[in-house]
Specification:
This protein is of the alpha/beta class and about 170 residues long. The chain is built from five helices and five strands. Helix 3 links the parallel strand 3 and strand 4.
Length: about 170
């Protein structure tokens, strides 16, 4: 199975490199962008998780999250905010924009890695559940089609034998 792709978006290049290094040690494929503008030029839909700083150049992490959550292709990508903005209102803003987690700077790398794993595990479990629901739905559709086919064949057989098809269809 391919390891998830993570995009780290932060204007602190050193922090991006530290996160990239540590997440790659865990086996993740990691790309970095040093601004929201740079990140928005990338194929964001190809990532399974975004780590976003809030306070960046022209477009903040909050604004970027808002843009991504409005786009069908990127709306379901989990977001973890990594930011120095640590007030309750800031956190609530992040969660109201659809963030899956919010980590205040300074933070420990081990804590970030643990939270990345937790968010990706929850996302993976959700995808499995959706896949299972889809499978059950397709199974019911198939059962319905088989039932219709059997009824049709019995009706044809009954016509051929000049009998009442209902005598053969007992469920």
């Amino acid at each position: 199975m391919d390891m998830p792709k993570i995009l780290v978006v932060d204007d602190e290049e050193d922090l991006c490199e530290i996160l990239k290094f540590n997440l790659e040690i865990e086996g993740y494929e990691v790309d970095t962008a040093f601004s929201a503008e740079e990140a928005l030029k990338m194929d964001i839909a190809s990532y399974q998780l975004l780590l976003l700083d809030v306070m960046m150049g022209e477009i903040s992490g909050f604004k970027m999250a808002s843009i991504l959550k409005k786009e069908e292709k990127t709306a379901d990508i989990p977001i973890i905010f990594l930011t120095a903005k640590d007030t309750e209102n800031d956190m609530l803003t992040g969660f109201n924009l659809g963030a899956d987690d919010y980590i205040s700077k300074p933070f420990s790398i081990r804590q970030v890695v643990a939270r990345v794993k937790a968010v990706l595990r929850r996302t993976s479990d959700k995808e499995k559940e959706i896949g299972l629901q889809s499978y059950h739905s397709r199974l019911k559709d198939t059962e319905h089609l088989v039932e219709k086919l059997v009824r049709k064949r019995l009706e044809n057989y009954a016509k051929y034998r000049k009998m009442d098809a209902t005598n053969y269809m007992r469920y």
